[in-house]
Design goal:
This protein has about 290 residues and is mainly beta. The chain has helices spanning about 125-130, 135, and strands at about 1-5, 5-10, 20-25, 30-35, 40-45, 55-65, 75-80, 85-90, 95, 100, 105-110, 115-120, 150-155, 160-165, 170-180, 195-200, 210-215, 220-230, 240-245, 250, 255, 265-270, 275-280, 285-289. β11 (about 105-110) and β12 form a beta hairpin.
């Protein structure tokens, strides 16, 4: 079994390591990731020609996102609409520190340089919980008490696919599929369709895992699931799995992670005709498989 040990980023976010979560490709050797401790920017990293080592990281401020409109960003996905590249950033939607609500679904119009024009969607968390009673009770609890905790985000044809770290149950993970008009004139809850809960069974029925990120191959229905413990006090090891939307079962890949790894973001990409996987780590590192 291959064991993944992350390589530290060559830079830090000021005085602290990058707390990298969701990641998406924006160029042949360029990727953008979120830092869930810094909701004011995205971070663009450029790899060397062999896509082995990160050469540099640029801070890309989010222009248009005010204080409190994006808290605890965890998920990131790319959506292409009529030749324009959009990035969608999702909050964990959790309750933190007893009463602080983490909300935010932000649409970003990607451009190669400078600040990124960004539009927060007002009231996304309340909208979702009002339409999914199964999540409403969890939305009142903190993550370590079995509360709502969204960490994964992918694009699935005409919908956003959210992966839940929690609430979780043994042998099963949950995704929420929300149809969305990402390229529409206005970015409001009116841009969204009715959400659908999807349950996916895992090969180890006695183990409780949550989704740490989701990555999809455009148009194929195949998704890569980054799995890990559902709460901070859990002990389930990180794993990579595959799932196709046509079924309700996931398979685990023959990949394990070093004990120092804290993988929180994953995306697939192609280089030289070969399919590769990029993983980013909330301890400030990355790995290319």
């Amino acid at each position: 079994m291959a064991k993944v040990r992350p390589t530290p980023f060559p830079e830090r976010n000021g005085k602290v390591p990058f707390n990298a979560s969701g990641v998406a490709q924006v160029g042949s050797r360029r990727f953008v990731f979120v830092d869930n401790k810094d909701p004011t920017a995205l971070f663009e990293m450029t790899f060397d020609p062999g896509v082995v080592a990160v050469e540099r990281i640029h801070r890309r401020p989010l222009a248009g996102v005010g204080r409190g409109q994006l808290r605890d960003p965890e998920g990131l996905t790319r959506v292409d609409v009529r030749g324009e590249v959009f990035l969608v950033v999702a909050s964990s939607l959790c309750v933190a520190d007893g009463n602080r609500i983490c909300d935010g679904l932000v649409r970003v119009r990607y451009a190669p340089g400078g600040a990124l024009p960004a539009e927060p969607m007002d009231g996304f968390r309340d909208w979702l919980l009002a339409r999914e009673p199964a999540l409403a009770a969890a939305g009142r609890r903190e993550p370590d008490a079995g509360g709502l905790n969204v960490e994964g985000l992918a694009w699935d044809r005409n919908a956003l696919l959210f992966g839940l770290r929690g609430p979780a149950e043994p042998g099963c993970v949950t995704l929420v599929r929300v149809p969305a008009d990402v390229g529409g004139t206005r970015w409001t809850t009116a841009s969204l369709g009715h959400p659908e809960l999807i349950r996916v069974r895992l090969p180890e029925p006695g183990v409780t895992r949550g989704i740490r990120d989701v990555s999809g191959a455009a148009g194929t229905g195949d998704f890569l699931l980054l799995l890990g413990r559902s709460t901070s006090h859990g002990d389930a090891p990180f794993r990579l799995g595959t799932w196709n939307r046509a079924g309700d079962r996931a398979a685990l890949l023959d990949v394990a992670f070093h004990r120092t790894a804290k993988p929180e973001g994953v995306t697939t990409f192609s280089i030289g005709g070969e399919q590769r996987i990029l993983i980013v780590d909330d301890a400030g590192g990355y790995a290319v498989l």
